[in-house]
Amino acid sequence: MMENVLTLKNVSYKYEGSKKMVLKNIDAAFEAGKVYTIVGKSGSGKSTLLSLISGLDVVTEGEILCGEIDLKKVNRDNYRARSIGVIFQSFNLLTNATAVQNIVLSMNISESPEKDKKAYAYNLLERMGIDQETADRKILKLSGGEQQRVGIARALAHNPQILIADEPTGNLDVETEKDILAIFTALAHEENRCVIIVTHSRRVTSIADVIYGIQDGKISVVK
Amino acid sequence: MYILKNALQNLVRNSGRNLMMGIIVFVIIISVVTALMINNTAGSVINDYKTRFSSEVTFSPNMQRMQEEARRNSTGGTIRMTPPPAMKPEELLAFGQSEYLQKAIYTAETKGNSDKLKAIDADKGGGGGIMFFRGNASGNTEAESLGQQYFHRVLTNYYEDFENGLRALEEGRFPENINECIISAELLENSGLKVGDTVTVTSVLQELGGESGDMNYTDISWELMIVGVYADITDEYNNDFMQNAYTNRRNEILTTFETIADKMVEGFFGIDITAKYYLKNPDMLDAFTAEVRAKGLSDLYDVFTDAGSYERIVAPVEGLKRISITFVIIVLVFGSIILALLASIAIRERKYEIGVLRAMGMKKMKVVLGLWSETLVITAVCLIFGLGVGMMVAQPVTNVMLKQQIDAAESAQNNNSFSPQGMMTVTSVGMGRVGGGMPGRSDAEPLKELKISLDFITIIEIIAVALFLSSLAGIIATQKIIKYEPIKILMERN
Q: Mind telling me how many Å the CA of B388 is from chain A's nearest CA?
């Protein structure tokens, strides 16, 4: 039996100043080597759950365990920098910097031991289908698909075991979406990473090994 | 290290905004460099003048009180002004024993003739007599020693010429003990003497008699050992008239104060003692005045420091200093406000970037450090160029401003050129004479130009100002960034 890389135990969350729980007593487990998708209507709490898992926010009740460690007890900056990779729908890259600079900066923040970070970044981008010429362009000069590939490369730059993606294909055309999904599948099945994707898209859920559904702040296993 | 590297890359990436920030910092730094250079140089000059002028005490006869005294003592409708009572040497020495004084410098001078010294230009006769002159061409001063004609000035502590390079010790040493002296090489050679020889110097002290005006005399003499000889490139005579052996500077005998003071006889004139008192602080004047009054200084004397000269000379520079420091304050206040606003706007513009960096796991302090590094680099570049440009513009700016201040000071002085008391003033006080002079005026000319220089203190101050400006931006960045949560920034953006 595979060990859980991420476990949610009785997680509840409400926004500051609000009395209403957005997430209620959520229990979920995530293993390495699988693609998970979290589906649900807008406002169901999917993105909130993602921000809790990615260490951008803190649970109101319950606990999130990364391996055996409670996220409340670790430095969340270090957790984000080293333990997980986050891919955003709107890419969230440094637009004035080049693709390769985005990757190198991420490696610097995570204090990556790689000696030649630039070469490593080019190599990583090439694996994502970005050649060196494109890698040296500023983000603003790249297409949406290219930007998302850079976003994935950046998330992988510090070699995390958990990858979290929020609507990663939401801004992409169908062809590009296929390419990106292929990358996610390969990352889970070939590189034994845990890929968690929040999505509305049926095409994205089609690659999932496990599908979680969220409704009214409660989670359930759909597949 | 990557923080600095990233900061440098950001400077290039956001060149437009950074250029604007740089221009503002540059202007602030040039203004501060110029103003601080002016301020500090002016400050040094003022301090120098304060030391030289403001703290020197002057005893001045008060003409108004002297007239009142004369009126009180008038007989038969005739008002006869008499000089104020002369201060006795022992009084001058007593005045110098004060805790308010930084130092008291005494000098003594008398006239003398010698058995072995053959004066230069003795054929022109002697001088310095109190009552009358008598011709002499023999050159042998011994023969004339009892007359009222002298061939030598015997001086103490007159070593300014040595400090100014006009005289230099050629052999031996300066007098240190009582009954030691040095003379010029010409006088030594003319007299056929050598260092180590002893000469006898004689003089006559005169007593001012009672109401009858009778004169009494007493002889005094010294056995002076020549301990040194000096080369002299000063002019032999100070002027073209009254040229005789006595006024010839080659015939001067330089000795110690104690040597001359030792021969003073109470009530007799012939030895002039001059005292200069320097207060520790000009504010101690009142206390010192009370003390010297208690020690016997007549009410007919006023006691004051050389404030007139100080004001006349230093007022334009003080005006310049005030303007420059006001300018620095205005520039810093307005500059800081502008920079704070710019920094605030810049942080707001970069909110998304900060959110991304924080989402990637960069710690808040590292984000702040990055932003601060950018401002520091901008400030450092502006500092280097600002120092250069500031140094170039400081002198012309100073010249223009100083000229305006001088014109203003002269205008003010012309409007206020009368002394409120109309007094005769003495800047030195001697036994047996009351010298007159311009009221409280120093010979020094008012400053016509100020040589601006960049000293170490100014550089430190400018660096401190630059650090303050860049830190201000850093503090604003810190305050903003601490409030930012990456999730909120990114959600807003999305």
A: 33
The rounded Cα B374 to chain-centroid distance in angstroms is: 46
A124 CB neighbour count, 10 Å cutoff: 21
3-state secondary structure of B367: helix
Tens-digit pLDDT profile for residues B211-252: 555 667 888 999 999 999 999 888 888 877 788 888 899 999
Nearby residues of B276 by Cβ (< 8 Å), 6 or more positions away: B56, B57, B104, B105, B106, B428
Mind telling me how many Å the CA of B473 is from chain A's nearest CA? 22
Within its chain, how far is the Cα of B215 from the centroid? Answer: 43
Which of A56, A93, A97 is facing B486, going by the closest CB pair?
Answer: A56
What's the rounded mean pLDDT across residues B75-80?
Answer: 69
**Full set of structural domains in chain A with CATH:** 33-47+75-221 (3.40.50.300)
Q: Do residues B30 and B335 touch, judged by C-beta distance below 8 A? A: no
Within 8 A of B17 by CB-CB distance, chain A residues are none
**Separation of alpha carbons B434 and B411, rounded Å:** 33
| Nearest CB to B494; choose among A54, A89, A97 | A89
Q: B360 vs A81: CB contact, 8 Å cut-off? A: yes
Residue B372 neighbours by CB under 8 Å, 6+ apart: B470, B471, B473, B474, B477
Q: What pLDDT is stored for residue B129 in this prediction?
A: 57
Q: Strand B215-232 vs strand B167-172: parallel, antiparallel, or unpaired?
A: antiparallel
* Average pLDDT for B324-350: 85
Q: Which residues in A lie closer than 8 A to residue B353 (C-beta atoms)?
A: 94, 96
CA-to-CA distance for B175 and B60, rounded, in angstroms? 33
Q: How far off is chain A from B358, nearest CA to CA, in Å?
A: 7
Task: Write down the domain spans for chain B.
Answer: 2-54+312-424+440-493, 85-297
Interface residues of chain B, partner chain A, Cβ below 8 Å = 2, 6, 9-10, 13-14, 353, 355-363, 366, 485-487, 490-491, 493-494
Average of per-residue pLDDT across B46-69: 76
- Chain B residue with CA closest to A104: the answer is B2
Cα separation, A206 vs A39, whole angstroms? 12
Strands A61-66 and A218-221: unpaired
Report the alpha-carbon distance of residue B13 to residue B104 in Å, rounded: 68
